[in-house]
């Protein structure tokens, strides 16, 4: 059973491994470095740290080395690692916990376009309750994404009737805002 | 007539509206009624879970709570990412009383987590006999590569194990019922690059082109998907794959609901085939007994 704790005191020298375990309910030291997660990882070819490296560094409290690497930001959460782990570790959930820790502390070093995308995405959801794709693309471009070579500049997107030009706002927008506020995520991605 | 809750998700009202159109076109023949969740909101998709675990549970939980209030015992989420977020929220809340309490406090709802979450494959797999019976124009001679991607079948703790996580068969069963011939290939469960489509297109080109090449090598006429992100990364991004020298030619990408719809004789325009970026004419030309009708509504 997880011991999920959603808001915690950022002060104090809580070791990284203990912090991740508190968030995920899983002991990162359970990983015995078989490398099965990394063998199946679609992004292992592009990252400096592979999933089993990340697991080891978490278990050894290597916060700085993790913070300065790109592995967790490039993780696609495809769940291959988690599905194949023979010892019940959950690398995908661990990556999420690390992203949450580093973003919350403002130390995150997500590549700029990825950071801009997630921020634009959640801003849209917070504003409208649903993703407004056209708004996402505009906000993403203005927020640091590449200006060209994208969906709106591709011929045929509009002709195919795929992009609505006005957002749909859910009626329960107050509830959505309350959820974001309660999760402390209104400042996400910054 | 069976009733099932329907969570369309944002993509099915936007970039992948043909997935919504084709699903709605086939359900009357499957003796099923879709009851849309009132005032549904975004599940948080590929962004919320990297920012706040609670946010990634609370956003989908709002939708499940409304479905519960509507008296719906189960909900189908055709988008694989929505499915994964809804099913993960259900799974995590059911295993963690603290989390359940926190979610209820945040939502200000009395949510009992009673709603089952179904993938589109789980629903269609339960209907293969009906699909077979209604396939008046079986897709004879059409070889399809059934592509599951990441989130439809794993991890089993979340999916409940309706299909095998390493060797699934539900999509092949559905396509066979529609008269098509699934090919054997290797990259059915590989990731297409998912949420990095816009922010790291190079990764999507690398992963997606490998999937297309493997499907072609296996002799497939088309790839079948059940996820808007997979569709976008394999269909829309084919152009980027070509311009970056990673891919040549065309591979039509069909939603599984379009495959079923075509076998029922529903016209390609109704099924939204004209909304794809890669032409589906090669597929419609193979429709049994048809003289190669072009996908009506095709635009350049």
Task: Characterise this structure.
The complex is a heterodimer of chains A (190) and B (300). With 190 residues, chain A is mostly helical. Chain A has two domains: 16-105, Alpha-helical ferredoxin (Fumarate Reductase Iron-sulfur Protein, Chain B, domain 2, Orthogonal Bundle); 112-188, no CATH class. Chain A is built from ten helices and no strands. Chain A has helices spanning 16-24, 36-40, 51-59, 63-67, 71-74, 80-84, 91-104, 112-128, 133-142, 173-182. In chain A, helix 8 packs across helix 9 and helix 8 (112-128) crosses helix 10 (173-182). Chain A is globular, with a radius of gyration of 19 Å. Residues 1-8 and 186-190 of chain A have low confidence and may be disordered. With 300 residues, chain B is of the alpha/beta class. Chain B folds into two domains: 2-120, Up-down Bundle (Glutathione S-transferase Yfyf (Class Pi), Chain A, domain 2), CATH 1.20.1050; 136-295, Rossmann fold (3-Layer(aba) Sandwich). Chain B has helices at residues 17-26, 45-48, 53-69, 80-94, 97-107, 120-125, 128-134, 156-159, 170-177, 201-217, 228-236, 238-243, 256-263, 281-284; strands spanning 2-6, 32-36, 74-76, 116-118, 143-146, 181-182, 222-225, 253-255. In chain B, the strands form two sheets. Chain B has a four-stranded parallel beta sheet. In chain B, strands 6-5-7-8 form a four-stranded parallel beta sheet, with helices on both faces. The radius of gyration of chain B is 19 Å and the shape is globular. Mean pLDDT of chain B is 93; it is low at 290-300. The interface between A and B is large, with 69 and 69 residues.
Question: What's this entry about, in short?
Answer:
The complex is a heterodimer of chains A (190) and B (300). Chain A is an all-alpha fold.
Can you tag this structure with a few keywords?
A: 190 residues, mainly alpha, Fumarate Reductase Iron-sulfur Protein, Chain B, domain 2, 10 helices, 46% helix, 0% strand, disordered N terminus, disordered C terminus, B: 300 residues, Glutathione S-transferase Yfyf (Class Pi), Chain A, domain 2, Rossmann fold, 2 domains, four-stranded parallel β-sheet, 10% strand
């Amino acid at each position: 059973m997880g011991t999920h704790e959603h808001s915690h005191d950022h002060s104090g020298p809580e070791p990284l491994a203990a912090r991740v375990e508190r968030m995920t309910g899983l002991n990162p030291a359970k990983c015995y470095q078989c490398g099965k997660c990394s063998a199946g990882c679609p992004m292992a070819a592009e990252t400096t740290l592979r999933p089993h490296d990340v697991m080891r560094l978490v278990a050894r409290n290597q916060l700085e080395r993790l913070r300065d690497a790109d592995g967790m930001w490039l993780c696609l959460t495809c769940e291959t690692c988690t599905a194949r782990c023979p010892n019940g570790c959950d690398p995908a959930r661990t990556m999420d916990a690390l992203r949450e820790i580093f973003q919350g502390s403002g130390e995150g070093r997500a590549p700029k376009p990825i950071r801009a995308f997630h921020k634009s995405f959640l801003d849209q959801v917070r504003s409208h309750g649903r993703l407004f794709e056209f708004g996402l693309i505009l906000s993403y471009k203005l927020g640091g994404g590449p200006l060209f070579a994208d969906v709106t500049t591709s011929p045929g997107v509009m002709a195919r009737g795929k992009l609505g030009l006005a957002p749909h706002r859910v009626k329960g927008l107050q509830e959505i805002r309350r959820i974001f506020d309660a999760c402390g995520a209104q400042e996400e991605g910054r | 007539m069976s009733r099932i809750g329907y969570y369309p998700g944002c993509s099915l009202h936007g970039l992948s509206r043909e997935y919504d159109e084709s699903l709605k076109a086939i359900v009357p023949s499957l003796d099923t009624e879709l009851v849309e969740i009132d005032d549904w909101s975004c599940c948080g998709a590929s962004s919320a879970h990297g920012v706040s675990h609670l946010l990634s549970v609370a956003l989908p939980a709002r939708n499940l709570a409304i479905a519960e209030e509507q008296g719906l015992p189960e909900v189908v989420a055709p988008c694989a990412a929505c499915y994964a977020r809804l099913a993960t929220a259900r799974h995590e809340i059911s295993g963690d009383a603290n989390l359940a309490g926190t979610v209820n406090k945040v939502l200000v709802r009395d949510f009992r987590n009673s709603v089952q979450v179904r993938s589109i494959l789980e629903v269609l797999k339960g209907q293969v006999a009906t699909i077979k019976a209604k396939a008046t124009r079986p897709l004879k001679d059409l070889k399809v590569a059934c592509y599951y991607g990441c989130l439809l079948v794993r991890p089993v703790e979340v999916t409940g194990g309706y299909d095998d996580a390493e060797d699934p068969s539900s999509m092949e069963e559905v396509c066979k019922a529609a008269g098509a011939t699934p090919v054997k290939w290797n990259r059915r469960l590989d990731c297409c690059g998912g949420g990095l489509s816009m922010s790291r297109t190079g990764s999507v080109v690398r992963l997606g082109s490998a999937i297309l090449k493997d499907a072609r090598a296996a002799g497939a006429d088309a790839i079948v998907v059940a996820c808007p992100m997979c569709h976008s990364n394999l269909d829309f991004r084919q152009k980027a794959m070509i311009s970056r020298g990673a891919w040549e030619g065309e591979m039509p990408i069909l939603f599984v609901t379009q495959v079923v719809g075509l076998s029922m004789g529903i016209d390609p325009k109704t099924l939204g085939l004209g909304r794809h970026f890669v032409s589906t004419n090669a597929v419609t030309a193979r429709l049994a007994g048809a003289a190669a009708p072009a996908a009506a509504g095709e635009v350049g």
